[in-house]
Amino acid sequence: MASRPARRTPTKGRVSPSRRTDTRVERAIQSAINSGEIVAVGVLHLVRDTVVTVLAGAQNVGAELGTAAVAAVRGSIKAAHSMGADLGEVARESIRGTVTAAESIGGELAGVARSAARGAVKTTGDVGGDVATAARRAVEGSVLAAKELGVDVRTLAQSAAEGAMEAADRLGGAASRGVRATLSGTVAGMRSLVAEAAPSARQGGPQPAARKRGRRGGAAKTASQPRQGGDRGKSTQSKDGARGRR
What we know:
Elements: H1 17-34, H2 37-55, H3 61-83, H4 87-104, H5 109-126, H6 131-149, H7 153-171, H8 173-184, E1 186-187, E2 190-191, H9 193-197, H10 206-245
Antiparallel strand pairs: 1-2
Helix pairs in contact: 1-2, 1-3, 2-3, 2-4, 3-4, 3-5, 4-5, 4-6, 5-6, 5-7, 6-7, 6-8, 7-8
């Protein structure tokens, strides 16, 4: 009797490594904060140590680092919200923690700062917090991390601002306007981060069209002047001819 072919194991229920990392990091952060550990070690150390520990055995650290950064920030802000803590301060320290964790395991810092800031603004909006403050604190956290690590401050601040604005634009309305207005000023010593990251429509489109219309107008006036002069010349000649006949 012929043996039956082995059945293939269904893959529908499998969870991707990034998804598992996301869940582990967020649960670990929330559990620690809810148990009071946030008071003992602070959000900065908690987030940094959790991200480093979870990614220690990862096969592809670069691919999972952004996911872990977002999960760490999200877990911190959700737990802080449930405790009535300052969301802005938690956002700042959690981003410091993710960036310093990325540096310790050889990750790409600008990408982590961007992902973490995007997660901070989105999560703050989800829980009903002040997204403009979250955006400001996110940039501040990236600046502090850059100074501690001795890397380019402007680059990390710009990356964090870009991530914050991406999240705010997805939220739309007052959230988007508030974040852009905040980052248009000076944040942590960095000026006008919005202008470099994403110029507004008012800085781009309408101005060339206005100049173009101005040039056309000027050309029309220049073209009309000779005709007017010619008409006056003809009028003068006709008057002189009339006087001569008289």
